[in-house]
Amino acid sequence: MQVLQNPITNLGLTFDDSERAKHGISALQPPAVFSMEDEIERTMNQFKMIANPLDKYMFLMALQSRNETLFYRLVIENVTEMMPFLYTPTVGEACQKFGPIFQQPRGMYISIKDKGGVQKILDNWPYKKVDVVVITDGERILGLGDLGTYGMGIPVGKLNLYTACGGIHPDKCLPVTIDVGTNTQSLIDDKFYTGLKQPRVRGEEYEAFVEEVLMGLHNTFPGVLIQFEDFGNTTAFGLLEKFRGKICTFNDDIQGTASVALAGLLSAKRAKGSDFKDELFLFQGAGEAGTGIADLIVEELVAEGLSLEDARKRCWLVDSKGLVVKSRLAGLQHHKIAYAHEHAEVKDFIEAIKSLKPTGIVGVSAQPGVFSKEVVDLMCELNERPIIMPLSNPTSKAECTAEQAFTWSKGKCLFASGSPFDPVVVDGKTHVPGQGNNAYIFPGIGLGAQVAGAKHITDDMMRIAARALADYVTDADLATNCLYPALSEIRTVSANIAKAIVEECHKTGVAAKPKPADLDAAVKAAMYAGEAPPTIETPADRTKGPALLRNPSLNRGLAFTAKEREANGLAGFLPPAVFSMDLLVEQTRWQFERLPAPLDKYRYLMALQNQNETLFCKFVIDNVTEMMPFIYTPTVGEACQKYGQIYQKSRGMYFSIKQKGSIKKLLEQWPQPSVEVVVITDGERILGLGDLGTYGMGIPVGKLNLYTACGGIHPDKCLPVTIDVGTNTQSLIDDKFYTGLKQPRVRGEEYEAFVEEVLMGLHNTFPGVLIQFEDFGNTTAFGLLEKFRGKICTFNDDIQGTASVALAGLLSAKRAKGSDFKDELFLFQGAGEAGTGIADLIVEELVAEGLSLEDARKRCWLVDSKGLVVKSRLAGLQHHKIAYAHEHAEVKDFIEAIKSLKPTGIVGVSAQPGVFSKEVVDLMCELNERPIIMPLSNPTSKAECTAEQAFTWSKGKCLFASGSPFDPVVVDGKTHVPGQGNNAYIFPGIGLGAQVAGAKHITDDMMRIAARALADYVTDADLATNCLYPALSEIRTVSANIAKAIVKEAQDKGLATKVWTEANLDAAVEAAMYSPNFATPFSA
Predict the structure, then answer these.
(1) Which of 150, 632, 647, 695 is catalytic?
(2) Can you tell me the distance from the alpha carbon of 789 to that of 994, in angstroms, rounded to the nearest whole number?
(3) Torsions phi, psi for 917 (to 5 deg)
(4) How do residues 953-974 score in pLDDT, each as one tens digit?
(5) Is 269 labeled as catalytic in the residue annotation?
(6) What does the alpha-carbon distance between residue 148 and residue 138 come to, in Å, rounded to a whole number?
(7) Residue 632 is a catalytic residue
(8) Cβ-proximal residues to 381 (8 Å cutoff; 6+ apart), any chain
(9) CA 278 to CA 301: how far, in whole Å?
């Protein structure tokens, strides 16, 4: 199991059979083995289904936390498409909403509260070799300001680009956020804020703490490159100057931005055919990025022959107070002084343009719109081909858009931006806006630094990297006004930059490693390309450190207290904030509600369950009425049909017919030592959808979620099982993403022997386990139930559970009518497992009320695909229908059967939508004052009629219940609440009672007693709204009542292995019901 929980070792469905056997996961995934190419295609299809950029970001982060190899292969092979979602512009929104969207931590958080103990925290990091660290204190995130710990998206995003673009191995990347507080009041007021809610620490304490962190990283991971990211202007320059000579480091905002901007300017010069020394640049913005770019331009101009003084005069800055000039020296920050030239003071950017006549303007101010039409028009007056570079991020902070620049300049300008923009057509010509993305630079710098073993990163290296990037721009690129190469070429660009960096390191003596004889080969060999790990090692202890956060049964996420984090090796792996369970539920609600479609909500809930089971259960239990349609019907039907397309991570166990003879050994792979309830399917008759094979696993998973949510069965004691004997659905065999055996179903003795091996294996491996049959086909379901009900503790929910909940609804309907149950007559549309199961239990109830067996059976009539089931058809009937083959003329038509039999109620179990037509309902109303209409087929799309149809056509007369949920219906001013005859009212209580009693078997009488207990809980107020079932919000109380009734029945019939008195039964049931919380101290 650990190998599947660790994103570095998890290869999902690409593990072949021998690897699955080696790692003990043969039964923990569906049988099918997929190529990595298939998995990339499946994942890309899932990605494309998502419309919202932030949802795409969250999808990618979840993928990375689940299967790192697949994540990087997807990104590397689709880097152009993925870049805007992995980093800017989407990462900006992700950082702003980091608290609400937080799911799984990544990297390390080191807070000022940890000062003096940083080394101990760093020792927790599981990998002893780290090549690149990206570190932030969150003070200046993009152009968004001080986001504190919400800024962790930046180091994470940057390191993903180090891997995707530069081939730095993900195991050797470490994102770090240092938390010294925040000066953003809205964050301090934000209930979801993940950092320290205090003002930023400044001065000597800050500097000493940062030094402790940096030197700790440097000493713990020898040779590591540490990239400063998004520090504030007041600290960034000083930290860079202080540490650049001590450790291998650079500041990407100052130097990386400078390098990529210089590359764009060199490309622009080439496009113009000008001499770089003749260009003059005016910067809107004079912070880290602005002065960093100016400094590197100066380095380049000096390298081309200008003096330092003359070179600096080619760069002018405008800050919030106007043009930076000498007369302002006394009030200038240190980094601006070199660019304070002799000039009259100018307050306005446009006036500065008029006065200085620049050839290019560079925006690094995060002031959207500051490059106005007036500005662009003026630049076009002054220059034949003006350079316009709005570099601020994210897109919302860009000084102008590409469309504005190209349109206003009539296609004359040479344009590059910090965020991506779409191509622009002006006068029939397509202009491709180059993105001055730092990702063109820093991955190659990092790669080169690692190949060379660089001791330091110099400004010359940044200039050389810019030249290498500019040299890769083709004439074809420039012909479209694009100043950068295609992003699809970025790994080649990074390799070229890396080689140039290695050469520079050896030339200047800062290389710690020997120069490779074949530099091309050395750089290529150093580049990770999404390969699976050569060897897979799993941690011995899955209850400590990061492994604990990946264990859904134990993970508490942000609810781990400071003491628990320290004791369990979690210090540094979570943001400093500690959340209550209530706050985590509220955060989960925020994430859940923003999803548009039911299937998206289903996938979200399943991902949450695989991440933090306690939180999942708490969220579902607290909102059971709302969640029920998403964790089970109707949404689970769509989920099963699309199981291969939406597959992300397996849950439960799969036993394939190919594994016959090995089931006992395979069951040893299940990590939980105790199992109380198994739900098992062979996928042949999934809801009303037919044979879905292994795609039917959503049903056992969903049913067991309801066992927990409604009946309090502990999730660790639940085991979903799918047995795969093939499928007879050709579309699945033709489906490239089908997860099961692509062969016809095995039948007969081989099938029966295999099922017996699985069932008895479960029974013997987990003593006392209750095994629920689910969605087996009609040809096997009855036989299996009869064969095993006396050998093991088992029942079939489609036959018996459906029968029990339907009987409860009918008992409520009888009460609403004030009739005698013996006077009711029921006609079933459908004669499969559900239909005959309901009929059988109605008969049990009627016999208990005094009718003979023969008379009781005559109160139930069935219609199958050939018409009314009657004695003249005996020879061709399946065994389970024979008891209901009564003396009557043959009738082919359902309506004719109604006319002839005059039933008081009709029950739909046919999965034929619309078969309860207006004519049918009208006829039932003619025959009855209050007809019972029960379309029980699932999912909603298969219901025989809707609640609105039944109530409207009957003018509110009918007593209605359905298998799927429907909204209330208003008829003539009265609100009718359609009861959902959901088996979840029954089976969780059965399971709970079976466990409390230690039941040896489940009997039909237990099902009848459960139905009565459910019907007894329906109030007069419920019946006043025509609702035949209690509110779903009461379902745990209903389950407890059913459980107590089951315990008493088991004890009365000698089927209980545990005995409870009337006095202690309530307490026993209550104690057995799992209630998720983090109130107790953590213990693995």
Answers:
(1) 632
(2) 14
(3) -80, 175
(4) 999 999 999 998 999 999 999 9
(5) no
(6) 4
(7) yes
(8) none
(9) 10
